[in-house]
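Lab notebook, bench 4. Continuing the backlog of folding jobs that were queued last week. Each job is logged with the same field layout so the records can be merged later without manual cleanup. Today's entry covers The GLUG motif-containing protein, a 547-residue chain. Filled in by technician R.K.

JOB TYPE: sequence-to-structure
TARGET: The GLUG motif-containing protein
LENGTH: 547
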Amino acid sequence: PSAVEEGLPEEEVAGGKGTAEDPYILMTKDQLNNMRYEIAAQYRLGNDIDLDEEEWEPVGNSSMPFSGTLDGNGYSINNLHINKGIADYVGLMAYTNNADFRNIKIDGIIVFGRNYVGALVGYAKEINSFSNIYIGSGEINATSYVGGLAGTIEGGNVEYSSTEVNIVATSSYGGGLIGHSRADISKSITFGNIAVTSNYAGGLVGYIASNNIVAESCATGDITGNAYIGGLVGRVYANGAKIENSFALGKVTGRGSNPYTGGLLGQVYSSSSAARVNVNNCYSVGIVNATGTTAGGLIGQNNNTLITNSYFDSANAGFELPLDQAKTTPDLLKMVVFRNWDFENIWEIEENITYPYFINLPMPSGVIVNHELVEVLEGDGTPENPYIIKDAIDISKMRFSMDSHYVLKNDIDLENILWRPIGVSTMPFRGELNGNGYSIKNLFINRPAADNLGLFGYIVDGKIWNLTIENANVTGRNNVGALVGYAKGNNQIMNVNIISGEVNSNSYAGGLAGYVEQGFIEECSAKININTLNGRAGGLIGHSRSS
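JOB STATUS: finished
OUTPUT FIELD FOLLOWS
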């Protein structure tokens, strides 16, 4: 009997039955390799897996595509090496159909193929789902249809994913995330450089061919090619597609005499004025190295395109038109320029310091200043060498690395700053802050319709100690405290003192924290006024399940 009929033998996996309720558990490279013998099953990693730089044979093919689920469970697949320069459909998975991938990390990537090549998937047919995928450092080199995540995705969605790998296409269709796409993309970031010899290169996607949405995504690498070259997307060729709340930082070079090259998008085309492509709330700030009538600061050339509230840095791009899109660098560091942008839920800006960046998708290694990522703080964020916080600007940058270690070196005054809490439910603070005996003064938050408010909005398994907060005035809806709005997981809060101010909410309000699910609180105090409309308030904690 076949493995498909009876399931994989017990010795071929570490456990499970291959069902959604009880997936096969994979602990070793041999067990990972055994996915090819049951391509419709459900799998979950139970350990980091090192492929030891051995030649990997991609799983699935066009006649028997992988159609199951792989949940990385937060673990990493390391040292993926594939050398198939004359083969199509190359990646950890060669060919998939209606597959589901989530919580996967792949690092140490060296992949060679011909067409349809990516670190995770070469070719994804029908409706595939990709969520929380991280593709690390390395290089993917192919002829055409090459991307950091996947070479081609014919349908489905990609969300909360990032790539750092560099992309080289000796012909066409190269993208930091996807080479050729018919998928919706949201909350995704690429950091690698893209080089194509011919056409269609983008920091995020080389070519978008259907009426999909790209939202809350960005690309930071440099992009080079002949024509249809964009900092975010090389070509959008689809009626009704949407590019919104996204940006590009990298240098864009289009070598052709008719380059269709732009800082954000190379070309945007719709065949119908009734189904225009919408570009909304986007910006680009990189150098645009291209000339001619099909080159531009934001978009190289467009047809039937509605462009609203979208801008480019005229000094960096080297273009001054259109006037409604061209802005100076100082202009793009001011919130007032970005009218109708959502600075409550999507965007943040450090006035006169940074371009806009995403609240819920922090940059892992820096902050956007003068069209590039720069290091945020002194130190490296480890327990031995924590990031050093000296002033109000420094402390606001904790949001760029939510799982790092920090230490105060001065008292911090937040006067005249409308503070945005660090951490949200989808991107909580998981690191450590040592107050080092110093104080944070004049914390002010006024967001009566928002939940989870405090110096930290949402923390999971975090540690905060040796800190004083003076004169905290925090107003919100639910889960409101001077230090933390909502604390989940095994948190440790020790020797934190709140010595003056006021907390106002509908419910779940505390001087220290609004809502604490679990964790450990020791030697903390709060001398602060608490006001709630619906009760559930405490001098220290509004609602607690902690010890």
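OBSERVATION: Residues 74 and 103 are 5 Å apart (CA to CA).
SIGNED: R.K.
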